[in-house]
Design a protein that fits this description.
By secondary structure, this protein is α+β, with helices and mostly antiparallel strands. Helix content is about 40%, strand content about 20%. The protein is built from 6 helices and 6 strands; from the N terminus they run αβββββααααβα. It has a 6-stranded antiparallel sheet with strand order 1-2-3-4-5-6.
């Protein structure tokens, strides 16, 4: 049995960003935030979702390893450019050759993931991203909202 190409790609993206990967979750820390990258598999099929999370250290985050515990949470398709084919690429029922799927995921999902985590690497950068409106589809805990609206 060959390894799942989405998992292979996910580990490569996390490693390339300097994240520590454990299972389907990867994370890294800066002085202000903990960034979390999560690969979630659907309970109903062979589809995956990529979740991005930010935990604020100013709100007490010390060792957040799960996306659902983050103060700010968003799905990749909410921050990726419109017109990307990420959902189809993350669906193993869609017919793609392994190499084509991995290279397309790198282009269509890897770039927005890197951009998101670059734009959230510090509290000041996170505030700027929030002011730009790019987090309008994100879940933002009320304490985090108060922190980044300052």
């Amino acid at each position: 049995m060959t390894e799942d190409p989405i998992k292979v790609w996910f580990r490569a993206v996390g490693a390339g960003l300097g994240f520590t990967t454990k299972g389907s979750t990867a994370h890294r820390q800066s002085s202000d935030v903990i960034q979390v990258l999560d690969l979630q598999r659907s309970n109903y099929g062979r589809q995956y979702y990529i979740n991005l999370g930010i935990a604020l250290k100013s709100l007490g985050a010390t060792n957040v390893l799960r996306e659902e515990h983050c103060h700010i949470r968003v799905r990749l398709d909410s921050v990726a450019d419109a017109g990307t084919d990420v959902a189809r690429l993350l669906d193993l029922d869609q017919p793609f050759a392994v190499d084509e799927r991995i290279s397309s995921l790198e282009l269509e999902a890897g770039t927005p993931i890197r951009q998101f985590f670059e734009a959230t690497a510090s509290l000041s950068a996170l505030k700027a991203l929030y002011r730009s409106g790019r987090l309008r589809r994100a879940f933002i805990h009320h304490l985090a909202r108060a922190e980044i609206e300052e």
